[in-house]
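Researcher: I've been going back and forth with a colleague about how YihY/virulence factor BrkB family protein might be arranged in three dimensions. Neither of us has a model we trust, so I'd like an independent prediction. The organism is Acidipropionibacterium acidipropionici, in case that matters for your notes. Sequence below.
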Amino acid sequence: MRTKGATGRLKALVAWWQQTRIARTLQRYGARYGGLMASGMALTTMLSLTAVLTVAITVFMAVLGGNAQLKASFLNALDTALPGILKTDSKSTGLLDPNSLVQSNASSITGVIALLVAAWSAVTLVGNLAKSIQSMFGLVALPGNAVMRIVRNALGAAAMGICLVASSGLSIVVNIFRDWITRALGISPGVGRIGLIVSGLVISAVADAAMLVLLVRAVAGVRVPRKDLWWGVVLFAIGSGLLRQLGTTAVGAVDDALLASATAIITLILWINLLVRVLLYVCAWMANPPQGVPVNDPEAVHFRERPNFVTMSSPDTLEWPHNAVTGEVQPVAVEKVSQDQDPLPL
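Model: Here is an independent structure prediction for YihY/virulence factor BrkB family protein. You can compare it with whatever you and your colleague have in mind.
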């Protein structure tokens, strides 16, 4: 009796857990292959990173690169966003020299082609990220043609760069007016330094929040209820802030130049992977999906038949319930015939 009672309580606990939002979030993340998409995005980002940085730094240098303080702040912001990737005035162990990424011949035909190829890599990267976000919300198709999707992805990539520049500009303003604000308010230098650190964290959190809203709403085209969107903004700001701090700490802890380079590569791959995972987990949380229906009966999805998927090679499979966009077979309830009953005549 005690065993049955314990088993019943365990089943009740499992049933309760499966109904919770956290469990439904994890289920959606796993059902839509979140881990696989995060790993793919990390590899894609690493392959496109030089191209993306070339476009970002070239455009920035052409527009605002004349201001030395703004330039230093922008490069530091990039180094914070991508730990260990750039060499800066305060750190010479980065992997890439920012000056080598500037297209000095951008006005020539070769330079224009190089910038267009790099820009296309950035747009493609943002498009793949948008598809991953849509998958977490269960969106398999959005209206619109390919040209409009490319335009939306390009605008999203540009807006993300503007957010980064704006974040750098706010950091500069805080640094410039720090002493003036400290004197005006009569704050001690120690408290002022703490205030500077806090303000930097707030600026980073605001930039992360703007990035999330931009990616989800504008680029991916997902209309999230405001309450869930606010939850997502808070969770993503906290998660990305912690990852950024951990990544910077890991790279800064290595003094040797050779080891620092290797650590930067490993840390960057891992950091991008984890950041995309955080983003997709947050999207699955905002989706607040219903509990998934387990498929325990092979007959419910025609698993034992040949073929066991929808294909034009077997027209009969086209009559199975399936998703018209992706072709995924939809589970259906199968009524079992009792052994005591004769099967219905054909």
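Researcher: What would you highlight for our discussion?
Model: I'd start with this: Residues 298-346 form one domain. After that, consider the following. The chain has two domains: 10-287, 298-346.
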